[in-house]
Amino acid sequence: MLGSTGTVNVTDGKITGLANHFYSDTIGWIVAAIVIAIYAGGTLLAWRRRVTAGLADQQLAGPIIRIVLAAAAAIAAIAVVNNDRGLPLAVLILLAFVGGMEYVATRTRFGRHVFAVGGNAEAARRAGIRINAMRITVFGIAGTMAAIGGILAASRLLAVNQNSGGSDLLLLAIAGPVIAGTSLFGGRGSVWTALLGALVIGSISNGMDLLALESSVKFMVTGGVLLAAVIIDALARRQRQAAGRV
User: Fold this and answer.
1) Separation in Å, CA 215 to CA 36, 87, 164, 211, 239
2) Percent of the chain with pLDDT over 90
3) How far is CA 237 from CA 41, 204, 245, in A?
4) Which of 43, 76, 89, 182 lies 20 to 30 Å (CA to CA) from residue 32?
5) Distances, alpha carbon 148 to alpha carbons 18, 77, 142, in Å
6) How confident is the model at residue 56, as a pLDDT?
7) Residue 120 — left, alpha, or beta (φ > 0 → left; ψ -120 to 50 → alpha)?
8) pLDDT averaged over every residue in the chain
9) How far apart are CA 81 and CA 69, in angstroms?
10) In 3-state terms, what secondary structure has residue 160?
């Protein structure tokens, strides 16, 4: 499949456009307005439902502050990308997947079952959850997301070879969510915090690249960050077990 050169060049415009297409400034501001409106509407609707159910304070200060902060972040982000080449299509794809998976994880029965199985498989089984089916489904979703990531990586590099997806990519993919609070033991985590962790670990990796550090040093630094996150997670889990919360 790789031919005599060991490389397949990607020339399909639809594929290459996924990571190399940028929208105009006007489209960027329109997208920002839509995102702010959706976030504000969802936040106010959730607040209203909680107030109706007697589960939240009736003061609007909290939701308004969150909406203002989200709007400021969206406006700042669009201002930055418009100052460069415009809003990338890849960012919209990323946000669509993150938002969709966050909804599935927090608003659907399937998402609750995933957290239940990850937190305590035996308790989930006794509650009537099909453990094996849930695990197979989650692994299938993970494989699908990896395939989508591979397509976007090929679009960005305009080629694939036997080294594609190698090096420290897998280590970074694991380290990002873990340092943001996703537990390797299961049952804890968030899609949005996983994205934040990916940004942090990506910033660390880019910083080491700018410093021209050797690959061995980058592996040790990334591994050290991941090890520290896992140790903290393990200690926190032990404390929760001692307190009877797991």
Assistant:
1) 41, 32, 16, 11, 36
2) 27
3) 36, 26, 9
4) 182
5) 11, 24, 10
6) 62
7) beta
8) 85
9) 19
10) strand
Average confidence (pLDDT) over 204-208: 85
Instruction: Indicate the domain borders of the chain.
Output: 166-240
**C-alpha Rg value of the chain to the nearest Å:** 21
**Would you state the structure tokens that stand for residue 48, as one six-digit string?**
């209203």
The residues that bridge with 160 in the sheet, in sequence order, are: 8
Residue with tokens 């962790």: 197
Sign of CA dihedral 132, 137, 141, 146: positive
First to last CA, the chain: 49
Query: How many whole angstroms separate alpha carbon 10 and alpha carbon 4?
Result: 16
pTM: 0.79
Residue 235 confidence class, pLDDT cut points 50, 70, 90: confident
Q: Residue 16, Cβ neighbours under 10 Å: how many?
A: 16
| DSSP H helical ranges for the chain | 13-20, 25-52, 61-82, 89-107, 109-119, 121-126, 131-157, 169-179, 191-210, 215-242
